[in-house]
Write a structure and sequence with these properties.
By secondary structure, this protein is an alpha+beta fold. Among the domains are: 94 residues, no CATH class; 94 residues, Irregular (Invariant Chain, Chain I); 88 residues, Invariant Chain, Chain I (Irregular). Helices cover 17% and strands 20% of the residues. A three-stranded mixed β-sheet has the order 1-2-3. Strand 15 and strand 16 form a beta hairpin. 27% of the residues are buried.
């Protein structure tokens, strides 16, 4: 009869909301699955817009745990109203129904290797279990305790972006979205493209710079997502970048580049250098010159700088984002130190400032393979992360080289 609510019986375990739109009856919602509200070791879910015409019901998609039934789809396989939880995937077992199993990935392998050594008691005190995301990839950043955190790719490779290791503060503020955008962009650009492709500008921690520009229009973005905020924008032909509400001179590495009269600029020495090289290359092609030898132009880092290594009179030196030399780190040409120079340790020292926990670097600015802290020494990888357990006796470390004259020198 008119005004009566229709009820539909479904599984007691999962009760997704259902908007009843039966002609002539009132509209009602069935209680959503409890997984989004409970959210513990056995229950978790994802709140989504309800799968109805007006999306006005609460909806919770349950996440299945390891070993629970799931559906791969297809005739005769049945259906489910949820999906496998983070880090899990639906697999088909020949001896049973399809069920949720842990994703096989490089990050999960690293976790398993850590867990195995943890049970054996061979994990170092500054060695931490690698963090993986819901797809089994490495999390956006990794940290060296008491030192810094740095951005990493989905494959666990260190990429642009570093900040002080500050626990929960780092988790809240370091998302590396801009850095990862550049890393993926570089991998997907065809190798035959003759000019560097300029992506969004990043800050030193790998987040999006609050100020982004497209051609001559600059606007404000969210530093985590890169999404444009409001409609606050300026045209550089008419106004300087300093009039944009989100502009901060602290994040502008080269504010002098923005000075002068209209038309204004918001750029860096590296970006201007690349722009000039591209113009020269295009003009040479138009003039009919063979420019194959000059067809490769080196781009800038995601923050618009030249890099963290410079060459002066044939010698490599470590520099910061403002192209100021860091310490006395250098490497002479035609030496092994020249070829392997990465200045990662020098960068970490620069980021840590006057901290007493700063790492020891090699003469070329790389991390020394053996680091010591408070009378205990440990082996570290090229990114400064501890590998295996520490020891007060340096000669018992796995990375100790008995043929090396002095382990303190590198």
């Amino acid at each position: 009869s008119h005004g009566r609510t229709t009820e539909i019986l479904i599984s007691e375990k999962f009760q997704p909301p259902l908007l009843l739109q039966t002609f002539g009856f009132e509209v009602g919602c069935i209680a959503p699955a409890p997984h989004c509200g409970i959210n513990n070791a056995t229950h978790s879910g994802l709140r989504l817009p309800s799968p109805t015409i007006c999306n006005c019901c609460d909806y919770c998609m349950p996440f299945f745990g390891k070993g629970e039934y799931c559906s791969l789809g297809g005739p005769g396989t049945g259906t489910t109203v949820g999906r496998c939880g983070p880090g899990l995937t639906c697999t088909d077992d020949e001896d049973a129904h399809s069920n949720c199993q842990r994703i096989t990935s490089k990050c999960h392998d690293a976790q398993d290797e850590y867990d195995k050594r943890y049970e054996q008691g061979t994990v170092g005190s500054l060695e931490f279990r690698r963090q993986c995301d819901g797809r089994g990839n490495f999390s956006t950043f990794d940290c060296v305790p008491t030192q810094t955190c740095f951005c990493q790719s989905e494959n666990g490779e260190r990429i642009f972006g570093e900040m002080l290791e500050m626990g929960a503060v780092t988790i809240r503020n370091m998302h590396c979205g801009c850095s990862r955008f550049h890393e993926k962009m570089a991998k997907n650009i065809a190798p035959g493209v003759p000019y560097p492709v300029e992506g969004p500008r990043c800050t030193s921690d790998g987040n999006f710079n609050p100020v982004q520009c497209l051609n001559r229009t600059c606007y404000c973005v969210d530093k985590i997502t890169g999404v444009a905020l409001r409609r606050d924008s300026i045209n550089l032909d008419e106004k300087p970048i300093t009039e944009l509400s989100c502009y901060d001179e602290e994040t502008d590495l080269f504010p002098s580049q923005s000075l002068g009269e209209a038309p204004y600029n918001y750029t860096t020495p590296c970006l201007e250098h690349v722009k000039a090289q591209i113009a020269l290359l295009k003009q040479s092609v138009e003039d009919g010159f063979d420019v194959d030898f000059f067809s490769s132009i080196r781009g800038c880092l995601p923050d618009g700088t030249f890099g963290r290594i410079d060459v002066v009179n044939g010698t490599k030196i470590c520099i910061d984002e403002r192209r100021q030399r860091i310490g006395e780190y250098e490497a002479l040409r035609h030496t092994p130190e020249y070829e392997t120079m990465n200045c990662k340790c020098a960068q970490t020292q620069q980021t840590m400032g006057n901290s007493l926990e700063r790492p020891v670097c090699c003469k070329n600015g790389n991390f020394r393979e053996i680091q010591c802290r408070r009378g205990i020494c440990r082996c570290v990888d090229p990114d400064g992360r501890q590998v295996y357990e520490e020891n007060s006796d340096v000669t018992k470390l796995s990375c100790f080289n008995p043929n090396q004259k002095d382990w303190r020198e590198c």
